[in-house]
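QA checklist item 7 of 12: single-chain prediction sanity check.
[x] sequence parsed
[x] length recorded as 117
[x] structure emitted
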Amino acid sequence: MVTDTDGYIHIIEYLTAHLSLFENSTNTNDAKISVLEVIEQEMSEQIISLCNQNQALTFNQRNTIIREIDAIVYDLQEILSGVVNNSVTNEQLAFIKEFAILIKNLFDTEINRQLIL
């Protein structure tokens, strides 16, 4: 659905352009939540929002979206493998929130494109 689109490639390129946020970072956040936990939480929230906004999605479409999100989280784990278990910093948290919104927007675009066709 989205992981094979140019939009997804651009979002991954955006992530790689900002990898410096995840390198040699020190946590200034009092919460001891890991980078991976934040990724999972933010992606979940955005996909729940996506499904709530698109009540007409079928069971199979929702399952496809969930499988794609699993693949995206896996990609993020691979790219950020050295830091996924580190405590998230405030800057990383803000970036991950933005990244999750970009992923949701990509799904929104694809859902709307399929509805138009």
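[x] summary fact logged: The chain is about 70% helix and 0% strand.
[ ] second reviewer sign-off
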